[in-house]
Amino acid sequence: MGPGAALASGLGLAGWRPALAADLDFDPEQDPTAGRTIIFEDPFLTLDREIWAAGPKAGTADPGFYGRAAFARWGGEEGFDPYAIVSDAEASHGTALQISAKYVGERMNVPHYYGNEEPEFQWISGNIQSARSDGTIMRGWRHGYFEARMLFPEHPLTWPAFWFLNARSILAPATSIEIDVVEHKGFEPHVYGAYLHEWGEPGERHESSGVTTEPDMTTSYNRYGVLLVSDQCVVYFNRRPIRDPATDEVLVWTLSRSAEMEAADDVFWPLITLALRSDYAFPDPLLETHKLTHMRTDYFRVYT
């Protein structure tokens, strides 16, 4: 097993199987769940610590923080716990994962966080992931359709995301593969970004697209998904493929490191994150209504 691919019990062989022969002729225009079955689902009835770790992004290259907020560990930081299971009539099973961000506004003592002394960075928020910084992957998959149903906050700084990293990148961070199924800005209710990053040389490359949505992502739940088949990657919004804004063609991105992943038995692991952007001016004044904000996730599913 290659670096970063140590598996906790419960992953299952489905996470490692090659793509089905039928998948190789897939039609990206079709509903990505058609002909596939759910092999994993977390409906967020509870916070399952055997599936999810909480806190900074798992890795060894840096402390794992980014943006204007510190990602809390289970139990919270600075007296604030951003993780909760809440009742929600709009959720599929009546409950949702709620990740919150709170402005502390005074000196913090979060280990290894660069913003403890900086007033604009004195926020606590949350990130859950199915991996740990020692390389353990609690849940990971190479192929399939991955989907989260989410409700984003309206806010001047929020930067929620549903994304994936490859297992080897934790302990061998010179190169990594990052798939950002959705990155949202809280002040753009009808636009989000999707990205594929293959970081590090040789062969660093990047793909990206803005996605315009009819629904307001801050007032309604929507499904954000990605289909990984062989060396191909297709991002979906409400189970419809995103399209090139210039040509209206379905965007099918190529994973140029697909063969390397197969050779190393590498997998992707998911992250669900509520971050705060640091590349926009800090609100002046910061309104009381903006000092606490929430993101909800109905479920996370894997289909193969």
TrEMBL record:
InterPro entries: Beta-glucanase-like (IPR000757), ConA-like_dom_sf (IPR013320). Residues 50-304 form the GH16 domain. The keyword rRNA processing does not apply. One of its GO terms (molecular function) is hydrolase activity, hydrolyzing O-glycosyl compounds. GO terms for biological process: carbohydrate metabolic process. It holds the Pfam family Glyco_hydro_16. Keywords: Hydrolase, Plasmid. It comes from the Bacteria. Belongs to the glycosyl hydrolase 16 family. This is Glycosyl hydrolase family protein. The lineage of its organism: Bacteria, Pseudomonadati, Pseudomonadota, Alphaproteobacteria, Rhodobacterales.
